[in-house]
Amino acid sequence: LTDRIKGVLAPVVTPFLADLSPDRERWLAHCRWILSNGAGLAVFGTTSEANSLSVEERIDLLDSLMESGIDGARVMPGTGCPALTDSVRLTAHAVKRGCAGVLMLPPYYYKAVSDEGLFRSFAKVIERVSDARLRIYLYNIPPVAQVAITLPLIDRLVAAYPDTIAGIKDSSGDWPTTKAYLDNFASPLFDVFPGSESFLLAGLRNGGAGCISATANVNPGAITRLAETWKDGDADQQQAALDTIRGIFAKRPLIPALKAAIARYSASPSWAALRPPLVKLTRGESDSLMAELDSAGFSMPGLASSGRKAVAH
Amino acid sequence: LTDRIKGVLAPVVTPFLADLSPDRERWLAHCRWILSNGAGLAVFGTTSEANSLSVEERIDLLDSLMESGIDGARVMPGTGCPALTDSVRLTAHAVKRGCAGVLMLPPYYYKAVSDEGLFRSFAKVIERVSDARLRIYLYNIPPVAQVAITLPLIDRLVAAYPDTIAGIKDSSGDWPTTKAYLDNFASPLFDVFPGSESFLLAGLRNGGAGCISATANVNPGAITRLAETWKDGDADQQQAALDTIRGIFAKRPLIPALKAAIARYSASPSWAALRPPLVKLTRGESDSLMAELDSAGFSMPGLASSGRKAVAH
Lengths: 313, 313
Fold this sequence. Notes:
Two copies of one chain form a homodimer. Helix content of chain A is 43%, strand content 9%.
């Protein structure tokens, strides 16, 4: 169990070049910065705009990451797609590349599908990948995917594939939902990750494994510190400080706001680019975000500047 | 304008082999049967489980269809995906293959996206495909995609790309929505297709171009007849007869029910297979469907049997 991926993971944002192709070098640099701040890499999540990338683009980026010498034990790529064949291909590739696990969306095109249909989706992927190293973390994000991971579905999956179904990321944004996953399933063999550091401390106090949070792209050091010191006396204060920063990002379009912040703190305006249908913050929105972050004393220490000198704060 | 694709189109259901790969021969035979009944081919729609297929699987099937000698003027493949690069690839391929147009979902992973973001999605596809032959039919299906095609979005797209934005399929299932598209946009250069034959006659009386309907997979002859004779005295009777058959399918899980009917009428049980997350009807559900269809005097004349002799009705 010592090699299980735990703690804080960032769904790494994906920078784009002017032609909207992934900016590999800048992406690798951001992965290294996140790792240097103690967090792991949940590449190809919702925050990564992974569903705005083709299967080939994801495979190509993961190859670059693993060839850069990063430890697969710290990597959990997202691999769930609407098409069974795509999910199988991405999942098999992640296992072959030595990733610690995969974060798997349910097939999300059809709505109001049955748990039977979802069970068969996950089962088919597991059977086709057919590799004892595979560890699947289910991905519950009903505000986006609409298709939810229910408790009875987890029951069935864990019973059928106890060595493979390794946990869940809950991005419901709803503590009772996260708590129900924790109460029913958290164990040394099933890790529950809240989908935001807002529930990091509450999660850890209820058997959680850490968190997988968009904001770990910009605030990984502080979030990781709480995950490592949550039994200390200042834990509630740490949580409050995380909530302040999270709140500043979360009241704006989250992915554009994260990219805007990285663009400003790295003095690399092109970091702000997104693939449609997402659009970047306006200059005014970005200025307002930065003003709030400055007032809160926020910074991203050690973030590599690319292009001109980093803006002083 | 004479080469514009109009009338009744079927979003062709995709049959699968035992390993859930597409059953190419059976699919081509079904395409031919639909064409022989007067309807065109909106391959790779929602009913086709297209979003459960990889990009390569769709390209491969379309290549087979076009190489089989079918007239591209009768083909409108679905090409809209969450990933811009996938939509571009599928759309460019469809144009290259001589298809009359493409039916394009908006990128549907992210929810509550802006019209600005959706405009840029369609614009990027158009600019990257960069082919004067491209005709895009927008695909509004909020019950599934959640992301809707608004009237202001169409306004912007038509203004920017008047030669390319050729129409819309409305699967809202809501007549006022279809009527608003008709009232605001129907013209010789913008075809409005209701997403069900339930609105075929009402649509035609309000300037509609026909319909693109799941049930055209099983009842294409009768639906096409109404589209061709809607000014005749028996049009309302024809519409009522179509509604009866549609109603029998629509009160069940629609795609599994269509496949179950084709399986029974062609005496080819394997036609009933679906990719997860969709699941086929139980034997009891299928029997009940067939009993209702028999009572309604429904049949699928000329449907090729594959395997054993067709069941008599």
